[in-house]
Amino acid sequence: MISIQQVENLSRLRSDDHLISTLYLRLTPDPRVHRRKLKDLIKEQEEKFSQENIPEEERGAIREDFEILRDFVENFSAPPHKGLVIFSSQAERLWKVFPLAQPVRDLLLLDHTAYVRPLVGILDGYRRIATLLVDRQKARFFEIYMGEIEERSEILSDVPARVKKGGLYGYAERKIERHIDFHLHHHLKKVAENAYGLFRAKSFDWLLLGGQSEIVPEIEKALHSSLRERVKKTFRMDVRARPHEILARTLELESEIKKEEDESLVKRLENSLGGEGLGVTGLQETLSSLYEGSVHTLLVEENFSLEG
Question: Residue 159: CB partners within 8 Å, gap ≥ 6?
Fold first, then answer.
């Protein structure tokens, strides 16, 4: 799973002696299509550097990079990935591969730095999500980012099942219930502490809580305040669900949350237009506000473009 730290490290990378190959490739269901596209990108770059004053040793290193890129893409299994980003320099012993769940614009560049700007733009459009599943005896913690899922921890506790047991005036039954509640409280506390530790290590943006309907509200109350404010959705799900089922449910909830946030932003814009409102629409009015540095939130229609 790609991390911001990896991209930051690449952004600081510079080689004065050798060129770094940066490849962004849109993957297709028919691998022959993106393989042919890579071939065209490489041919275009070879024609460019053949006309430049590049030492023969460096030319050889570039050809080696291109050959490795070709071999890797030839043997790469695309599904379920839709995009591929590679940073390579055999002379610098650099080889970083990032399969992505979304398509990218085809690009091959040679430079003394790694071209990470498109990748940073992609990362900015995603939230790092934590999904926590809890029942009376078990908890599982997952990290979901850019369509990928990784299980980070699992907790098992010995919480007795609730039973009916008679006794003098129900005394024995109440004693058993207190015993069970003690173990359940300890279990939820352990889960909450583990979740907070993972949050401090991973700094996720959203938290989704799932599991038994009677336990989810209890674990939410047990969470640290910095976690409770990140809870976006709660849902019912078997804690024993398979990772692909958990990923599918998480992505479904992520889509719901984004839709709700988009609708809220559009509503704020509508309410700010006219009268004493500070909102503006239209290209010229928006550009003027940007030039003046008075824009707090900018809304742009997806795939909007205009020459000029």
Answer: 136, 137, 180, 183, 184, 187
* Cβ-Cβ contacts under 8 Å for 297 (sequence gap 6 or more): 265, 268
Task: Extract the tokens encoding 276.
Answer: 């004493």
The whole-angstrom separation of Cα 109 and Cα 90 is: 15
For residue 161, what is the DSSP state? Answer: P
Which tokens sit at 264?
């809220």
Distances (CA, A) of 134 to 137, 193, 202, 207: 8, 13, 20, 13
CA 98 – CA 131 distance, rounded (Å): 23
Q: What is the mean pLDDT of residues 66-70?
A: 95
With 90 as the cut, is the pLDDT of residue 306 above it? Answer: no
Single-letter code of the amino acid located at 210: G
Which helix (H) or strand (E) is 151 found in, with range?
Answer: strand 148-156
What is the pLDDT, as a whole number, of residue 203?
A: 86
SS3 279: coil
Helices (H) and strands (E) in the chain, counts: 9, 9
Give the pLDDT confidence of 219-231 residue by residue, as tens digits: 999 999 999 999 9
What's the pTM value of the predicted model, to 2 decimals? 0.73
Better pLDDT: 154 or 56: 154
